[in-house]
Amino acid sequence: MVVLNKIYTRTGDDGTSALGSGERRPKSDWRFEAIGTIDELNASLGTARLAIAPDLDAMVARIQNDLFDLGADLAVPQDESRQRERLRVVSAQVERLEAEIDALNDGLAPLTSFILPGGSPAAAALHISRTVARRAERVMTALNAAEPLNPAALTYVNRLSDFLFVASRVANDGGKGDVLWVPGENR
Question: What architecture is the 27-76+88-174 domain classified under in CATH?
């Protein structure tokens, strides 16, 4: 259980922050970049939820909770010598996301072109979240090159950008409101 009695601690005034393991690192560390990008993604999803329909909202609410699990996963480096069990993203979370992608995609017509981000306010907000998810994946991949991450966490963030793409099409009246790219249109 998390208890936050005091919001500021002054312990980060020297440019460091603590991981869930207690280890202190510079705030510029790739691990904090990953955690911060996941936090940004979660905040962008909070904004998207203001515009999306209830069926998508329920899915995105679950994703926001999963993103806190992902942040907790990232906050404690994997170390086989630790005996204490840590909160990690698990394959069941990835499988649920895949099932939701498949269910949402079933009602959409196949694409004939790339989509420009936009259409409806809900779709535009979901596209912004999709791009933040892609950045989170790039940051996590860079971190993974230096310190191995939980493979399910990497898979989850990859699937999440796919979910957000499909969800944006659903938010665009089932794809009818998608704005298609027209190559070379303005030459």
Answer: Up-down Bundle (1.20)
Question: Residue 14 pLDDT more than 80?
Answer: no
Contacts of 163 (CB under 8 A, 6+ apart): 59, 63, 97, 100, 101, 104
**Residue 80, pLDDT score:** 52
Cα angle 167, 155, 162; round to 5: 20
- The pTM assigned to this predicted structure is 0.90
| Total Cβ atoms within 10 A of residue 34 | 27
Q: 18: which strand partners? A: 24
C-alpha 139/C-alpha 133 separation (Å) is 10
How far apart (Å, rounded) are the C-alpha atoms in residues 127 and 136?
A: 14
List the one residue out of 135, 151, 130, 149 whose CA is nearest residue 63: 130
What's the confidence (pLDDT) of residue 5? 73
pLDDT band at 161 (very low <50, low <70, confident <90, very high): very high
Question: Which residue type, as a one-letter code, is found at position 124?
Answer: A
Q: Where are the domains of the chain?
A: 27-76+88-174
